[in-house]
TrEMBL record:
PROSITE patterns tied to this protein: PROKAR_LIPOPROTEIN
InterPro entries for this protein: PilP
Superkingdom of origin organism: Bacteria
Protein name: Fimbrial protein
């Protein structure tokens, strides 16, 4: 019974609150039109636009791209320099930089030594002499009991390549 009474009271309050405005629509329209009218300010005088002809005095044309600046100390590009042979990167460890790879151990006999290298994802990969690892075409040239030696090829920025030797060592 209580819930029926509550619904009846809420319904009555809603009906009382929905009193429609019974003023005639024509009177509302006339009143709104009178309130909406206002005087429009006149615009200020427009300044005349003066066209000036372009004449280049000195310097480059603004319609041509500037040349690349050359530094006086920049070495001249060599016409013949060492280039590595192109090869596809197919090794599992070639997608990572050497900073992200960790040497976890070395195992095997004198003639057949392999290194265990951990990737950033946590998996461990066996590496032998001649395999590639790292993002700079690092080829494993030597495996010792506590380190791997790699030969990397890096571009020098002038179209030539340089070789460098990098060691990946076990951490104590």
């Amino acid at each position: 019974m209580n819930s029926r009474f509550l619904i009846l009271v809420v319904g009555a309050l809603v009906m009382v609150g929905c009193k429609a405005n019974k003023d005639p629509l024509d009177a509302f329209y006339v009143e709104a039109k009178q309130q909406g009218q206002s005087d429009v300010d006149k615009l200020s005088r427009v300044l005349p636009f003066e066209v000036e002809a372009y004449s280049q005095v000195d310097g480059r044309s603004p319609f041509v791209l500037p040349k690349q600046p050359e530094i006086a100390t920049q070495p001249v590009k060599k016409k013949t320099c060492w280039q590595p042979k192109y090869r596809k990167k197919t090794g599992a460890l070639e997608r990572y930089s050497l900073k992200r790879l960790r040497l976890k151990g070395v195992m095997g006999a004198d003639s057949d030594i392999t290194a265990l290298v951990q990737t950033p994802k946590g998996s461990v990969v066996k590496v032998r002499k001649g395999q590639y690892m790292g993002s700079n075409n690092g080829q494993v040239i030597d495996i010792k009991s506590r380190q791997i030696t790699l030969k990397e090829t890096l571009p020098d920025g002038m179209g030539c390549w340089q070789k460098r030797y990098v060691k990946l060592a076990l951490k104590h």
